[in-house]
């Protein structure tokens, strides 16, 4: 770090300390956050000026803490952005609902006979047998072990079907 930058940073930190001491006790927490933001801002500006950080990165880092206050302003001044934001929220909610419906629908689509056939079990298999057969097959078919995602999903579905009943 350049000596002049270090001296300036120390002077600002010392001034901030004295300002913090002058604050009433009940306002010191708020003053602490202001000081931290000030020191981080100065540090980022220093890094941007000396070329150790891209100026755009410093700008983004400075805006992030204020994003919660800036977002409502942006939404108020840019109605198109507000409509887009609302549509994204609705899509997320619909996606969650559709996922739950698909998951619930898949359980009822497989019969017990199909599930037993997939796991290679006979009717009347115990819970331990189902779990053991599932574990054996999923070790072979899991996508992380170069297996098929579809087959692994079918094996999981068969286990869920048999264990739910």
TrEMBL record:
Membrane topology: Single-pass membrane protein
Biased composition (Basic residues): 93-105
SMART domains, A to Z: DnaJ
Superkingdom of source: Bacteria
Keyword Hydrolase: no
Region annotation Disordered: where it falls in the sequence: 89-110
Annotated ranges, domain J: 114-165
InterPro entries associated with the record: DnaJ_domain, J_dom_sf
Keyword NAD: no
PROSITE patterns for this protein: DNAJ_2
TM regions (residue ranges): 6-22, 31-49, 55-78
Localization: Membrane
Principal subcellular localisation of the protein: membrane
Similarity annotation: Belongs to the TIM14 family.
The name this protein goes by in its record: DnaJ domain-containing protein
């Amino acid at each position: 770090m350049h000596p002049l930058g270090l001296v300036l940073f120390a002077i600002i930190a010392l001034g901030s300390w004295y300002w913090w001491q002058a604050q009433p006790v009940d306002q010191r927490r708020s003053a602490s956050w202001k000081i931290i933001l000030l020191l981080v801002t100065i540090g980022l500006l220093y890094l941007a000026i000396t070329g150790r950080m891209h100026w755009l990165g410093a700008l983004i880092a400075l805006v992030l803490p204020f994003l919660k206050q800036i977002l409502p302003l942006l939404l108020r001044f840019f109605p198109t952005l507000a409509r887009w934001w609302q549509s994204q929220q609705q899509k997320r909610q619909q996606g969650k609902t559709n996922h739950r419906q698909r998951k619930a629908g898949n359980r009822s689509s497989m019969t017990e006979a199909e599930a037993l056939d997939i796991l290679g079990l006979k009717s009347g298999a115990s819970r331990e047998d189902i779990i053991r057969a599932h574990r054996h097959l999923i070790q072979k078919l899991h996508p992380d072990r170069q297996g098929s995602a579809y087959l692994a999903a079918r094996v999981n579905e068969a286990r869920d079907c048999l264990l739910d009943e």
